[in-house]
Amino acid sequence: MNLVFFSLHYLTLAFRRISHRKNKMSIEERVKKIIVDQLGVKAEDVKPEASFIEDLGADSLDTVELVMALEEEFDIEIPDEEAEKITTVQSAIDYVTKANA
Fold first, then answer.
1. Cα separations in angstroms, 26 against 66, 69, 95
2. Count of domains forming the chain
3. What pLDDT is stored for residue 1 in this prediction?
4. Does the residue 31 lie in any domain?
5. What is d(CA 94, CA 86) in angstroms, rounded to the nearest whole number?
6. What is the pLDDT of residues 14-68, one digit of tens each?
7. Residues 6+ apart with CB under 8 A from 69
8. Which residues participate in catalysis according to the annotation?
9. Does residue 19 form part of some domain?
10. How far apart are CA 3 and CA 63, in angstroms?
């Protein structure tokens, strides 16, 4: 019985550490990771001023998928008229930060 409790206790602690790490990741880091994953670009190219289309090589479908990934990751809804304004890394970070305030 003690062995089961001991095992469950450590599994719970491990899960909390993993969850805590994700929560500790800043909005900026999470947005940049999504951009890297969605656009297949290098992390060092994802600078605040980088334009998704002009600098990171995204097309219109890529930007739609990027917005959808942001909505899913941050559990937010981005209206089309707002999505059209998200054209740079910094504008994505700013929008998500404001939506999570």
1. 18, 16, 14
2. 1
3. 54
4. yes
5. 9
6. 555 554 445 668 999 999 999 999 999 999 999 999 999 999 999 999 999 999 9
7. 34, 37, 38
8. 59
9. no
10. 51
Question: What are the φ/ψ torsions at residue 88 (nearest 5 degrees)?
Answer: -130, 165
CB count in 10 Å sphere of residue 36: 16
pLDDT at 25: 87
- How many angstroms separate the first and last alpha carbons of the chain? 45
Structural domain includes residue 50? yes
How far apart CA 43 and CA 32 sit, in angstroms, is 7
Q: Which two tokens stand for residue 95?
A: 């929008």
SS3 content of the chain, % helix, strand, coil (to 5): 70, 0, 30
- Gap between the Cα atoms of 34 and 39, Å rounded: 8
**Token pair 């937010």: residue:** 76
Q: Is residue 12 part of a domain?
A: no
CB atoms within 10 A of CB 50: 16
CA 32 to chain CA centroid, Å, is: 6
| Dist CA 30 CA 21 (whole Å) | 12
